[in-house]
């Protein structure tokens, strides 16, 4: 019998040599109970490229950052599924070997809409997504006054997401890690939040995400109740959750930690300072290092050399005289 023979239980050579999908890479990271993956928050192509260049194995697209950068608006449920999907698809395309976890808010509607969202995210090559139990006009999880839907409505969102994933698995082979997020802690307390997440895991979600945990003691209690299930910690300095290092979160039992506002805050502070200097002084101080690097430093971060090499390999001559 030669290697080209196939039957119902065998795998073809093409399937065996096919690279791991982004979702498979993320699942492999989550399968290690004693390790944690830190995901910096990104919101556009530049911040994603910077994170990738730093060597992070996984990145996170923030919904708040998408609202701020694409709409110039706050995280108050104003972004649509199309806004989020377009941004996430672009970011995921930059490096298919780096899994992207993307905010999917409430799923953007009832079960059929949640299904559409999940299938869109899968088609875009997004590795993981989280869906929450706020009302459609949601808000940032670290703001006050959140409104939460009833259990059954939330469960229907997660069930729809799991059903959509199963349909994609059976028809296209697509996959995505489903992260169940609850914001119920603020309004209904710890026990209700845990009950919701336990039910979501039973439905088929892969990761438990308790938003707004307010102490390290509750964080440890939470992960202990979900032993065997990967748990995600959202690190938002100045928010409801105590600031923790990656190692502290690992010791508490988390397997994922996201930093959604990291780039947003850095950019807001540094750009505000630069614009203020220009407005008040009529000039901006430029260091010798900046002058020496020139504009190519930024272009190299976003793939200038790769574009030049690709053009030459394909027989192009656009950059043969240099740039």
Automatic annotation (TrEMBL):
Residues 1-24 are annotated as: Disordered. CDD domains: ICL_PEPM. GO terms for molecular function: methylisocitrate lyase activity. Residues 1-14 have a biased composition (Polar residues). It comes from the Eukaryota. It catalyses: (2S,3R)-3-hydroxybutane-1,2,3-tricarboxylate = pyruvate + succinate. PANTHER family: PHOSPHOENOLPYRUVATE CARBOXYLASE (PTHR42905), PHOSPHOENOLPYRUVATE CARBOXYLASE FAMILY PROTEIN (PTHR42905:SF2). Belongs to the isocitrate lyase/PEP mutase superfamily. This is Carboxyvinyl-carboxyphosphonate phosphorylmutase. It comes from Cyphellophora attinorum.
């Amino acid at each position: 019998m030669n290697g080209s023979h196939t039957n119902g239980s065998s795998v073809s050579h093409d399937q065996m040599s096919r690279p791991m999908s982004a979702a498979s890479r993320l699942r492999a990271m989550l399968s290690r109970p004693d390790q944690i993956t830190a995901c910096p928050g990104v919101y556009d192509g530049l911040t994603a490229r910077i994170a990738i260049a730093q060597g992070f194995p996984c990145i996170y697209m923030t919904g708040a950052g998408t609202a701020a950068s694409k709409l110039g608006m706050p995280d108050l449920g104003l972004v649509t599924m199309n806004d989020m999907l377009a941004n996430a698809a672009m970011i995921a395309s930059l490096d298919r070997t780096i899994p992207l976890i993307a905010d999917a808010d409430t799923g953007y509607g009832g079960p059929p809409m949640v299904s559409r969202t999940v299938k869109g995210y899968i088609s875009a090559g997004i590795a993981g997504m989280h869906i929450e139990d706020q009302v459609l006009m949601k808000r940032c999880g670290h703001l006050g006054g959140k409104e939460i839907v009833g259990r059954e409505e939330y469960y229907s969102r997660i069930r729809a997401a799991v059903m959509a994933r199963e349909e994609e698995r059976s028809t296209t082979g697509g996959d995505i890690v489903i992260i169940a997020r609850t914001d119920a802690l603020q309004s209904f307390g710890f026990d209700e939040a845990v009950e919701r997440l336990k039910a979501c895991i039973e439905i088929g979600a892969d990761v438990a995400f308790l938003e707004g945990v307010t102490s390290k003691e509750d964080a440890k209690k939470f992960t202990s109740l979900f032993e065997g299930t990967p748990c995600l910690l959202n690190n938002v300095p100045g928010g409801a959750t105590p600031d923790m290092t990656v190692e502290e979160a690992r010791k508490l039992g988390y397997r994922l930690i996201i930093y959604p506002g990291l780039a947003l805050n850095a950019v807001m502070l540094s750009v505000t300072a630069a614009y203020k200097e220009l407005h008040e002084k009529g000039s901006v101080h430029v260091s010798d290092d900046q002058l020496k690097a020139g504009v190519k430093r930024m272009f190299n971060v976003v793939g200038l050399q790769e574009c030049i090499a690709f053009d030459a390999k394909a027989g192009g001559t656009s950059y043969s005289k240099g740039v």
